[in-house]
Amino acid sequence: MKIVRIDTQIVEIPFHDGGKGQGITPTTWHTLENVLIRLEDERGNVGWGEAFGYFVADATKALIDRLIAPLLLGRQIDDIAAFNRELQLRLHLFGRYGVTMFAISGVDIALWDLAARCEGVPLHRLLGQATREQVPAYASLVRYADDQIAPAICEKALGMGFTDIKLHEVTVPEIAACRRAIGHDVPLATDVNCAWSVADTREWLPALADLQLSWLEEPIFPPEDFATLASLRGQGVALSAGENWCTAVQFEQALRSGAVDSVQPSVTKVGGITECLRIAALAQQHAGVVLPHCPYFGPGLIATLHLAAVQPQVPQIEYLFVEPAGWLYPVEHLRQGNRLQVPQGPGLGLDIDLQVAERFRR
User: Fold this and answer.
1) What is the topology classification, in CATH, of domain 125-352?
2) pLDDT tens digit string along 159-213?
3) Among the four residues 7, 27, 116, 195, which has the most C-beta atoms within 10 Å?
């Protein structure tokens, strides 16, 4: 397929979460920033991708426009994985992670969508042998830092059909309040986004074990301190990480060192579908569990569904538990309780809602 047109745009969709929108990021978080990539080939086929862009959308878009578009426009792409590798090599001077890899991820997703549409098959047909048409999802709550609101939102998620919950609370009392609200039969995890010291993590692990935490996500900084993470395992609480690791290289290092109980690649951050396939192969070699990071509702989420369809080692995916003011895809129509249907149309299997994209275009 020869790429004859590349368009990028930022779509910023407000969302409601029932809280203050404070705690995880430096400023209030109340919108979902989508960096969308549209590719068109010489026959008029179109593929869509999504590059991670929360709070850095302009930088991600600029990198695609300035550094990737000149390498792609007019290019015949027959091997997406090889082109992904070329991009990583050509752009490594600008950082091996962050917006550089976010940008590569979005373009990679668009190329895979385009390739599947050219073949007239669902994306998962190009990725492997699908083993299921529905994928379980857990409700991933934002951080509320409130021992009244967070438990209430947990109960709301259960009422909407979810059976597993992940918090972003960073204190044991707040986690305990949620556990009391939902009982001990509901799987409960928490992501603290590297907020704890090693000493505090060691001190709090027994209490978290008593709360029967399903997993503790990214407890320490830096997240790639694999040796320390490995030393925290085996104390009654499973550990998980990966949304901030760089490409399959760091995932292999983590798996070899036994750093965590499950790995969490993010398709819009880690290098796209191509890199997620590499990570899946590594996880299979090391008998690792893959829990994809995917708190977004654009092409990234749909790509994650297709990847999960061909990866039996993915027990569930992440579903950001917020209410957007608009949907780029009819995601809620894909959801039945705690399961998401894998689209079966060509490419990603769904057409992006261009009216919503235009309405919330920044």
Assistant:
1) TIM Barrel (3.20.20)
2) 999 999 999 999 999 999 999 999 999 999 999 999 999 999 999 999 999 999 9
3) 116
**What is the distance between the alpha carbons of residues 106 and 38, in angstroms, rounded to a whole number?**
10
Residue 96 carries which side chain, given as an amino acid letter? R
**Taking all residues of the chain, what is their mean pLDDT, rounded to a whole number?**
97
Q: How far is CA 327 from CA 58, 191, 242, in A?
A: 21, 25, 27
For residue 144, how far is the Cα from the chain centroid? 20
CA 190 to chain centre: 16
Contact indicator for 106, 64 with CB cutoff of 8 Å: yes
Residue type (1 letter), 244: N
Measure the CA–CA gap between 106 and 68, rounded to whole angstroms: 11
User: What's the pLDDT tens digit per position in 119-164?
Assistant: 999 999 999 999 999 999 999 999 999 999 999 999 999 999 999 9
How does residue 290 score in pLDDT terms, banded at 50, 70 and 90? very high
CA gap 325, 144 in Å, rounded: 20
To 5 degrees, how large is the angle CA 222–CA 316–CA 130? 120
Q: Write the DSSP string, 168-187.
A: ---SHHHHHHHHHHH-SSS-
Q: Which CATH architecture has domain 3-121?
A: 2-Layer Sandwich (3.30)
* Token digits of residue 259: 């750093």
CA 213/CA 205 separation, integer angstroms = 10
- Where exactly does CATH 3.20.20.120 map onto the chain? 125-352
Q: What type of residue is 263?
A: V
What gap in Å lies between CA 336 and CA 295, rounded to an integer?
18
